[in-house]
Amino acid sequence: MRRFALVLVALGVTVGFSACSEESADPDGGEATPKKKKAEPTYIGAQGVTVTQVAVYQSLKRTLMVDGGPGAAEVPLVAGRDAVVRVFYTTDETYEGGEILARLEVEGGDPIEVTTTLAGPSTDEDMASTVNFVVPADRVGQTFSYSVGLLEEGKKSNDNAAARWPAEGLEAVAVDGPPNKLRVILAPFQYNTDGSGRVPDMSAERVELYRQRLKQIYPVSDVEVSVRQTTPWNQYIGPDGSGWQQVGISVYNMRGQDGTSDDVYYYGIFDPAASFFSYCGGGCLLGVTLLNDQPSDTGSVDLRLALGVGFAEYAADTMAHELGHSHGRKHAPCGGPDGIDPGYPHAGAQIGVWGMDTATQTLIAPSAATDIMGYCETQWVSDYTYKALLSRGQNVNLPRLHAPTRSPAVVVGIDGAGQATWSGETTVTENTRGRALAATLVGANGGRSAATAQYYSWDHLPGGIAIIPTGDAADVSRVELELDGKRRIAER
Ligand SMILES: [Zn+2]
Q1: Which residues crowd ion ligand 1, with CB under 5 Å?
Q2: Are 370 and 349 in contact (CB under 8 A)?
Q3: For residues 190 and 183, what is the distance between their CA atoms, to the nearest angstrom?
Q4: How far apart are the CA of 322 and the centre of ligand 1, in A?
Q5: Given 174, 209, 242, which residue is the final one in a domain?
Q6: Residues 332 and 445 both lie in one domain
Q7: How many distinct structural domains can be found in the chain?
Q8: Are residues 164 and 64 in the same domain?
Q9: pLDDT digits 0-9 by tens, 80-121
Q10: Is the peptide bond before 166 cis (omega within 30 degrees of 0)?
């Protein structure tokens, strides 16, 4: 169904790229009398060749040079992330069609070289029309200083500087660093409600597909996906949203149960039917989370979670979308979602620039895919979402002082009808901040004290959850909340 599955079949494309090798110029190893070594060949800019554009891709195109000037530096270059560099060129009649040594110098290691002949003219949509270099993640460091040359053997006096960029030395490109990793724990649920005991596919192959999809979308140097122990589940989970809130609260409570570090995202996953088609016949809910946009730089630790179905057709894209909400992203305007981000810059949720799956060197035209935060099919990440995810990721994923002081709190679920349910105890950090609601804590002895609840709405579901810090209040047996002008009561 999804393009993603098709792309994976086409793995293994890196034909024509070779790591640098400094070949010895001495072919005469076996002879008794040593001979004088041949001189190293001199490589010069190839005749009749002009480098017109240099671009680097890591999910999206970042133009480094165009027609001798700087490219628009709008897409960040992410430290420690795999990249592909494409060199665009033109040739004139003085290029004789001979073999070219294409060389990419990157500071901090050997040059990356490709031997090729040129055809051109180069276009965005045709990978074969450009000279392409695979740049391993570890070559994109804190800075990226590079030069490219389309070279041939010759005398220095015949050098064609137009076939190299820059003409002398290396050009430095700013890199967004340091490297950072997105960590996700998959929390499978065993669906016992229909007697099946069904558990979503958590095979190593499937988990790797999830990891790869997150790696395509998220501007991080790496993605780590691990699988938590399976949680038995005996309540109904329906395509209309029934029962999802209870699963969500269960996932919410896992962080406290596991003592996980703050940068980790939880993803609850379940198969409430035997197949996607039997689950989703007349339309269905695929995933849910709580929009995690306060405070805007980090969101709340406890809201780094989401949940969704494990059906192969949609699970990976649903996961990438829901975790986007957990990164504070609202919807992109495609497919009619609620909660559209008013700042989204491209009509129809288009991705804005050329995309590339660097693992397979598959190009994605700006109009051929829509942003992962919309509801349309064939999704990739836009420049807009990519930058926002990078900013959030650098605030959350990098090693820093996490785990500020935690204090006790109560979890209350509020369903689509406004009914409140006591849903367990938890702890909160100082930055747990949602929509503030006036609340009252009632002790077992009837004593009352005022509190402030933080309320979070589900993104694709009515209702939400309220977290009420209890502070020093002991034996809280009931909480009362003011939500939308009505008092909601939950009892332990
Ligand atoms: Zn959504």
Answers
A1: 459
A2: yes
A3: 23
A4: 6
A5: 174
A6: no
A7: 3
A8: yes
A9: 999 999 999 999 999 989 999 999 999 989 999 999 999 879
A10: yes
